[in-house]
Amino acid sequence: MSIEWRKSNRSNTTGGECVEVARLTGDTVGVRDSKDPEGPQLGITPAAARGLAEVLRAGE
Q1: 24 phi and psi, to 5 degrees?
Q2: Which residues form the DUF397 domain (predicted)?
Q3: What is the per-residue DSSP string for the chain?
Q4: Strand partners, 22
């Protein structure tokens, strides 16, 4: 099974602060630095991923 990493459609080639996310398993969402796709990955729960997205959208 291939992992499909996604990044925000607001990301562009001039930005340097992009992260990518992917569903790793049914209960784990992966987060990684788009500039270092072979580097470390953080595995979090879907609920934590939603909470992270809410905080980021709010600009906190």
Answers
A1: -85, -45
A2: 4-53
A3: -----EE-TT--TT-S--EEEEEEETTEEEEEETT-TTS-EEEE-HHHHHHHHHHHHHT-
A4: 30
Q: For 36-51, give one letter per residue: b (16+ CB within 10 A) or e.
A: eeeeebeebeeeebee
Phi-psi region of 13 (alpha: psi -120 to 50; beta: other; left: phi over 0): alpha
**Predicted confidence (pLDDT) per residue in 13-54, tens digit:** 665 668 899 999 889 999 998 889 899 999 999 999 999 889
Q: By C-alpha distance, which of 19, 17, 16, 24 is closest to 8?
A: 19
Beta bridge partners of residue 31, listed in sequence order: 21, 42
The pTM assigned to this predicted structure is 0.76
User: What is the per-residue pLDDT for 14?
Assistant: 65
